[in-house]
UniProtKB/TrEMBL annotation, chain A:
UniProt cross-references to PANTHER family, sorted A to Z: PROTEIN ABCI7, CHLOROPLASTIC
The organism of origin for this protein: Streptomyces himastatinicus ATCC 53653
Any single GO BP term: iron-sulfur cluster assembly
Protein's UniProt name: FeS assembly protein SufD
Protein family: Belongs to the iron-sulfur cluster assembly SufBD family.
Domain of life: Bacteria
Residue intervals of the SUF system FeS cluster assembly SufBD core domain: 133-360
TrEMBL record, chain B:
Database matches in Pfam families: ABC_tran (PF00005)
Gene Ontology molecular functions: ATP binding; ATP hydrolysis activity
Protein name (Swiss-Prot/TrEMBL): Fe-S cluster assembly ATPase SufC
Family affiliation: Belongs to the ABC transporter superfamily. Ycf16 family.
InterPro entries documented for this protein: AAA+_ATPase, ABC_transporter-like_ATP-bd, FeS-cluster_ATPase_SufC, P-loop_NTPase
Coiled coil: none
CDD domains linked to this entry: ABC_FeS_Assembly
Database matches in PROSITE patterns: ABC_TRANSPORTER_2 (PS50893)
SMART domains: AAA
ABC transporter domain location: 4-249
Alphabetic keyword roster: ATP-binding, Nucleotide-binding
Top-level taxon in the UniProt lineage: Bacteria
Amino acid sequence: MAETIPAGSTTDGVIQVGQQPIDARVSAPASYDVADFPVPNGREEDWRFTPLERLRGLHDGTAVADGGVKVEVSAPEGVTVETVGRDDARLGKAGKPVDRVAAQAYSSFEKASVVSVPKEKVLSEPVRIAVHGEGGTAFGHQVIEVGAFAEAVVVIDHTGDATLAANVEYLIGDGAKLTVVSVQDWDDTAVHAGQHTALVGRDATFKSVVVTFGGDLVRLHPRVVYGAPGGEAELYGVYFTDNGQHQEHRLFIDHDTPHCRSNVAYKGALQGKDAHAVWIGDVLIRAAAEGTDTYELNRNLVLTDGARVDSVPNLEIETGEIVGAGHASATGRFEDEQLFYLMARGIPADEARRLVVRGFFAELVQQIGLPELEERLIAKIEAELEASV
Amino acid sequence: MATLEIHDLHVSVEAEGGPREILRGVDLTVKQGETHAIMGPNGSGKSTLAYSLAGHPKYKITGGTVTLDGEDVLEMSVDERARAGVFLAMQYPVEVPGVSVSNFLRTSATAIRGEAPKLRTWVKEVKEAMQRLSIDPSFAERNVNEGFSGGEKKRHEILQLELLKPAIAILDETDSGLDVDALRVVSEGVNRVRESGQVGTLLITHYTRILRYIKPDHVHVFAAGRIAESGGPELADKLEEEGYEEYVKGGVSE
C-alpha cells in the first residue's frame, strides 16, 4: 500500500516534512506521547475556552478506560476493514497529536481500526462507522486510507453516552476523493474529544462535514495537511448548541505545499442557558506554499439569551505569492424585532424561529452537496428546534 | 363588514424613571372601505398607536379597548392579530437574514390564508404583484429586507399588503424617505388595495404629500397622545397651510 500514501507523509515520525506548527497558540509541541504535554490548567490559549472539570479526567491522566464504546464498521465490497495493534505502520502517519487529550488517546488505545479503500476503487455506497457509547470511558484510533484515484464516502456516527478520546486519520492518496461525515449525535451526557487529521495527497480532494448536535462536551480538532501540490480541502461544519452544552471545533489548515486550496465554512445555532460554542479557525500559509487559495467562514446564530459564542479566525501568511486568503466570522442574534416582524405577518412564533434557523443553515447544507445528509440534517435541525420551542 | 374600534386607549412604554404614558385615550373607528389619515407632529404617539394595534411587546396597554368586529384584539398575540386581518406596514422593517423574500411571502400567505396557496397560481400572483410595484424579479431570491434601499423596503411592505389582503391596513409613515417616483408607485399599490373596498386603511403620516396620491375620507390630527381634531380631507389642506403649531402649543408636552 506504500504507493497510496502521498509523498511527504511521515512514518512514525521518522521522516518529517517540515515541522509541526509551533506557535504561541499551543502550549506544547505536537507529540505522540502524552507525557510531553503538561496537564492543562485552563489558562493556556488552546484550553482557555474549555471547562476542564467536565473532561472527566481525559486531560489529566485520571480517566481510566473501561470499554463501553462499541464500534461497528460496515463497508461495501472491496473495502478492507482491519483491527490492528499499536505497532501497525499505518498509524500516526497523518500527524502527531496536538494537545494532551489527543496524545492521551494516542498513548492509551489498545487496538486501532483501519479502513482501506484500494486504489482506483470508486465506492457506490458509503462506508459506515457506528460508534455507540454504552456509558463507559474509552480511547480509540481510526485510520481511513483511500488509495490513489479511489473515491469514497465515509459516515461516522457517534451516539449514546460515553467519555471518549479518539483520533481519526485520513490518508488520501494521489488524485483520490474522500468525503467524511462525522456526526456527533451523542446523548447530552457524553464527553468526546479528538483530533481528525487529513493528509491530502497530490491533486486529491478531501471534503469533511462535521455535524455536532449532542454531548455535554465535544471538543474536536479537524486538521488538514497537504502531502503534495494540487490538494483541495473543503471543511464544513454544522452545530446546534443547546442548554449547558459545550461544543468546540478547533480547525487548522497547514498550507505547507504549493498550489493547494482550502475552504472552511462552519455554521452554528445556539439556544438555552449556558450553551457555549467555540470555533477556532487557524490557517497557516507557509513560505513554500505559493499559489495557495484559502477562505474560512464561521457564522453563529444566537437564538436565546444566556448562550455564548467564541469565534476566533486566525490567518498567518508567510508568502505573498498566493491566489487568495481570507476569513470571516460573524455572530448574530435572532432578535425580538425579527420575531415581531414575522409574527406581524401571521407566522406563529415557533414557526418564525424555524424559518430563520432553516434559512440560516440552508445555504451551507446545500453547499455540502450530499442529498442524503441534507435531509437528515434538516430533520435533525427541526428536531432540535422542536425540543426547545 | 370589518370594523376596528379603538376606545379610550392608553399605552405606556418602559423608560428610565418608570413607565411613560404615550397614548392618552385614543378613540377611533375604522370601517372596511374607509381611509383614515392620522397626521401629527413627531413624538405625538402616531407610531405608538400603529405598533400597539399590531401588538408590539414594547408597548403596554394600560387602559381602553380595541376590537375587530367585536373580537378583543388586545387579547390576541401578534400573529393572531395578523391572521384576524390586521396588517402593519412598518416604517423600519427589519432584516431577516437567511430567509428569502419568496419563502417569507409564501409562509406568510399560508399562515394568513390558513392553507398553502397553490404553487402555480401563487407564483403568478407574486410575479404580477411585483411587476405592478416595479420590483425586479431577482428580489424574490434576496433575503428579507437585507441590503434593501429605503424605497425597496417600502415596496416590499406594500407587496405584502397586496398579497395578504388584510381587513385593516395600518401604514406607518410609508411615505417617509421616498422620492416622488417611489411615492407614486407605492401609493398606486395602496390605492389598488383600497379600490377593492375590502380594506379599512389607517394612513399614518407626518406630511401631507402622500395625501395627494391617497385620498383619505377622514383626517385626524394627533397630538400629545390623542386625537386632537377630526375632519374631512379639508383638514389636511389646513395642516398643509398652517402646520401643527396650533396643536403643539398648549398641548401636553412630551
